[in-house]
């Protein structure tokens, strides 16, 4: 490990209170909670710990701001988003430092997320002024129909810790563009990035009460209060499938609109005709981005038996060369996992796979503290009954599974293996044959496929899953529709005599 020194959070005046109605306020109870740097175990801030009462107050403010906000011009909403995009970009170093320090991703990756996260604001700045509608005469010629879009109303936004900026901007951007007000609960482990984001939006001219940010150690109470209040019309959630299902149940009580970005279990397929360097570049990104803590992470890597020896050797060489350490230290490739429990879970999954017959090619045992580190690990010949085949690993562990057969037969077999999961977020396939790539990518039951690449995310593309990986899409042309209701008026056409 290369942890050299303990970085301090170098951002001055970082907000740590609740953001309600444009003001920073403490929790009514006065309670606060600690935010830990997972690379050092050091406490870097204490943040207001809201309860259900604080949450409801924030939602009342959002609800009472809704009508005025919906009446603003699309251009003014667009300009706020564009200014926020510019401010985030100008303050990229601050955002990246906060993210690395509160959740561990290496600083260069955090800079990448700042660019990606800010881009959602630029994209939705452009979408805000393109909210169209429709107009037609009914087939019988008797009526003129005008189809319009209107904001769904106050929204509940809930995000995970793994992409603290981008998971927020991907929801806040389209909500602002559409004219919705919001209550936003970031993850307990990473509240600071979201509070800084609220501050930037205020500076960009977002009116008071449009965005309200509530941090808490009691997500069930806070979000539950919002869901049962009858004041919110929509919930947009990114996180685990288990919590997503709970929110879907709660949303049914008041028939709220829902968008769900839930867990994945991505297959990564290496065909026997793949260019191995391309496949290795792709798998390193799909596996190691965010130290493996991504819903899009390659969870099951299926490699054709004809190339698995060479692929495993080259992958092991690349994985063992990665430098593990504090993400603020230059030269670090792999940061810590987000918390101790995460290391426990990864260690358990690896031990289980090994006890069922997998071979460890590198890594495979947790590293000593301080900080929550697990080394880059390659497992070969992972058996189908291993727990990590159905659970998200969420760590730097590449699980290789061989598959057999020739031509179409191999392709069909691997697609069947890949689809044998309730998840359907993303898949990856590497081959040099265009027809084969087409057959496999259309056979995969997922929302997104990376073809000879390990990265599919882009603000201009409709990100999302099928099956138990979610409902709705974020980004792209569809992203704003999640925050718009469709209505129409029908007017009789007076005929000329
Ligand atoms: P999580 O436990 O579901 O947490 C996500 C958010 O839900 C957090 O803000 C969490 O608050 C909150 N939450 C927890 N329990 C809740 C409850 N009872 N009611 C309402 N909200 C509740 O997920 P995670 O472990 O942080 O994140 C990892 C998961 O997110 C993985 O499954 C990953 O695949 C998924 N993910 C999906 C996407 C996608 O786009 N499909 C993107 C990124 C991540 P606390 O922080 O206080 O627990
Ligand atoms: Mg932390």
Walk me through the topology:
Blueprint: E1 18-20, E2 23-25, E3 32-36, E4 43-48, H1 52-70, H2 74-90, H3 92-103, H4 107-128, E5 134-137, E6 143-151, E7 155-158, H5 166-178, E8 182-185, H6 191-203, E9 211-213, H7 219-228, E10 234-238, H8 241-253, E11 257-261, E12 266-270, H9 276-288, E13 298-304, H10 308-320, H11 340-355, E14 359-362, E15 377-380, E16 397-403, H12 407-418, E17 426-430, H13 434-443, E18 448-451, E19 470-471, E20 484-492
Parallel strand pairs: 7-8, 7-10, 8-9, 10-11, 12-13, 12-17, 13-16, 15-16, 17-18
Antiparallel strand pairs: 1-2, 3-4, 5-6, 6-20, 11-19, 14-15
Helix pairs in contact: 1-7, 2-4, 2-5, 2-6, 3-4, 3-6, 4-5, 12-13
The protein binds NADP nicotinamide-adenine-dinucleotide phosphate and magnesium ion.
Quick tags:
497 residues; alpha/beta; Aldehyde Dehydrogenase, Chain A, domain 1; Aldehyde Dehydrogenase, Chain A, domain 2; 2 domains; seven-stranded mixed sheet; six-stranded mixed sheet; 13 helices; 20 strands; globular; disordered N terminus; binds NADP nicotinamide-adenine-dinucleotide phosphate; binds magnesium ion; succinate-semialdehyde dehydrogenase (NAD+) activity
What does this entry look like structurally?
With 497 residues, the protein is α/β, with parallel strands linked by helices. The protein has 2 domains: 18-262 and 470-486, Aldehyde Dehydrogenase, Chain A, domain 1, CATH 3.40.605.10; 266-451, Aldehyde Dehydrogenase, Chain A, domain 2. The chain is 37% helix and 20% strand. It has helices spanning 52-70, 74-90, 92-103, 107-128, 166-178, 191-203, 219-228, 241-253, 276-288, 308-320, 340-355, 407-418, 434-443, and strands at residues 18-20, 23-25, 32-36, 43-48, 134-137, 143-151, 155-158, 182-185, 211-213, 234-238, 257-261, 266-270, 298-304, 359-362, 377-380, 397-403, 426-430, 448-451, 470-471, 484-492. The strands form 5 sheets. The chain has a 7-stranded mixed beta sheet, sandwiched between helices. Helix 2 runs antiparallel to helix 5, helix 3 (92-103) packs across helix 4 (107-128) and helix 4 (107-128) runs parallel beside helix 5. The chain is globular. The site of NADP nicotinamide-adenine-dinucleotide phosphate has 27 residues, from helix 7 and helix 8. Magnesium ion binds at residues 35-36, 38, 102-103, 189.
């Amino acid at each position: 490990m290369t942890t050299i020194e303990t970085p301090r959070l170098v951002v001055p005046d970082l907000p740590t209170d609740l953001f309600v109605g444009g003001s920073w306020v403490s929790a009514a109870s006065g309670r606060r909670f600690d935010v830990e740097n997972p690379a050092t175990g050091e406490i870097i801030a204490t943040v207001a710990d809201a309860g259900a009462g604080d949450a409801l107050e924030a939602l009342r403010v959002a609800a009472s701001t809704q009508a005025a906000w919906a009446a603003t011009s699309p251009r003014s909403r667009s300009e706020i988003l564009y200014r926020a995009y510019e401010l985030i970009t100008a303050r990229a170093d601050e955002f990246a430092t906060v993210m690395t320090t509160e959740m561990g991703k290496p600083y260069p990756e955090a800079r990448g997320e700042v660019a990606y996260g800010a881009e959602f604001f630029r994209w939705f700045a452009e979408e805000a002024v393109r909210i169209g509608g429709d107009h037609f005469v009914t087939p019988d010629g008797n009526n003129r129909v005008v189809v319009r879009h209107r904001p769904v109303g106050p929204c509940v936004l809930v995000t995970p810790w793994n992409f603290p900026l981008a998971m927020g901007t991907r929801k806040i951007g389209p909500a602002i563009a559409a004219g919705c007000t919001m209550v936003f609960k970031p993850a307990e482990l990473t509240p600071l990035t979201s509070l800084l984001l609220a501050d930037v939006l205020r500076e960009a001219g977002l009116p008071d009460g449009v965005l309200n940010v509530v941090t808490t150690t009691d997500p069930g109470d806070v979000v539950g209060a919002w869901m049962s209040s009858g004041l919110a019309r929509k919930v947009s959630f990114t996180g685990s499938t288990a919590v997503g299902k709970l929110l879907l149940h709660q949303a049914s009580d008041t028939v709220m609109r829902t968008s769900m970005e839930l867990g994945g279990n991505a297959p990564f397929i290496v065909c026997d005709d793949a260019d191995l360097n391309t496949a290795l570049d792709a798998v390193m990104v799909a596996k190691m981005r965010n130290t493996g803590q991504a819903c899009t992470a390659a969870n099951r890597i299926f490699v054709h038996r004809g190339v698995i020896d060479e692929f495993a050797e080259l992958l092991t060489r690349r994985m063992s060369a990665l430098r593990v350490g504090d993400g603020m230290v230059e030269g670090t490739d792999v940061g810590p996992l987000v918390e101790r429990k995460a290391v426990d879970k990864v260690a358990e999954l690896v031990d289980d796979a090994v006890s069922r017959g997998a071979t460890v090619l590198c890594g495979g045992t947790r590293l000593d503290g301080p900080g929550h580190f697990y080394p880059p690990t390659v497992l070969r010949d992972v058996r189908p009954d291993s727990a990590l085949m159905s659970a998200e690993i969420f760590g730097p562990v590449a699980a290789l599974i061989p598959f057999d057969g020739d031509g179409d037969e191999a392709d069909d077999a691997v697609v069947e293996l890949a689809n044998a999961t309730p998840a359907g977020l993303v898949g990856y396939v590497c081959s040099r044959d265009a027809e084969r790539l087409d057959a496999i990518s259309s056979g995969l039951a997922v929302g997104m496929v990376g073809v000879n690449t390990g990265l599919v995310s882009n603000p201009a593309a409709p990100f999302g899953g099928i099956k138990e990986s979610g409902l709705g899409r974020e980004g792209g042309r569809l992203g704003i529709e999640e925050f718009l209701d469709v209505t129409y008026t029908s007017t009789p056409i007076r005929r000329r005599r």
